[in-house]
């Protein structure tokens, strides 16, 4: 059979007729917005971590080590370690500047995530489970969106779950 729009339409119609087609539920606009916030926050967390690891790598090549730190503490320790005349300062300073901006934006998303979690009763209830924090609860709540679309609790496990996005707020 040749590939064409007409043949594709015929094939799709056959899938529906036979019953192999399942309706796809569209998430609510609220859930789409909150998931977008969580995805953007996750990306900023990843960017911050990448910059920190890059700076650590550059400094380690010069034989300098420092303890684990995140955010403002990380930038302060790097600045103290390098001083004002280190040969890598011209390379690391722009990275620290970007790191500061990423941390500020990440903080704004963190505050928004906390605010959204406080407003939602289901999310607050999920957070009472040991080990479930704000991000995990909000992510789960808005990934599921409408529980009535599942026939039973056991079918929830088959729902695509974005594990990578559930990074805790520091």
Topology:
Layout lengths: L4 H14 L10 H33 L10 H11 L6 H31 L1 H6 L7 H11 L26
Strand content: under 5%
- Based on Cα principal axes, name the global outline: elongated
Percent range of helical residues: 55-70%
Stretches where pLDDT is under 50 for at least 5 consecutive residues are none
State the distance separating the first and last CA atoms: 56 Å
* Helix run count: 6
Cα Rg: 23 Å
Biggest beta sheet summary:
none
SSE pattern? HHHHHH
The number of E-state strands comes to: 0
Structural class: mainly alpha
User: What do the pLDDT scores average to?
Assistant: 86
In words, what does this structure look like?
The protein is mainly alpha-helical. It is built from 6 helices and no strands. The protein has helices at residues 5-18, 29-61, 72-82, 89-119, 121-126, 134-144.
Give a short synopsis of this structure:
The protein is an all-alpha fold.
Features:
170 residues; mainly alpha; 0% strand; elongated
């Amino acid at each position: 059979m040749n590939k064409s729009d007409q043949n594709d339409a015929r094939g799709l119609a056959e899938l529906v007729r036979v019953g192999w087609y399942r309706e796809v539920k569209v998430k609510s606009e609220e859930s789409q917005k909150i998931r977008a916030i969580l995805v953007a926050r996750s990306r900023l967390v990843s960017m911050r971590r990448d910059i920190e690891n890059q700076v650590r790598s550059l400094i380690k090549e010069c034989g300098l080590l420092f303890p684990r730190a995140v955010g403002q503490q990380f930038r302060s320790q790097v600045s103290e370690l390098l001083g004002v005349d280190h040969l890598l300062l011209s390379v690391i300073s722009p990275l620290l500047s970007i790191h500061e901006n990423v941390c500020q934006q990440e903080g704004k998303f963190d505050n928004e995530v906390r605010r959204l979690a406080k407003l939602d009763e289901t999310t607050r209830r999920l957070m009472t489970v040991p080990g479930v924090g704000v991000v995990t609860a909000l992510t789960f709540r808005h990934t599921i969106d409408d529980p009535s679309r599942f026939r039973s609790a056991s079918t929830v496990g088959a729902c695509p779950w974005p594990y990578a996005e559930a990074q805790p707020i520091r």
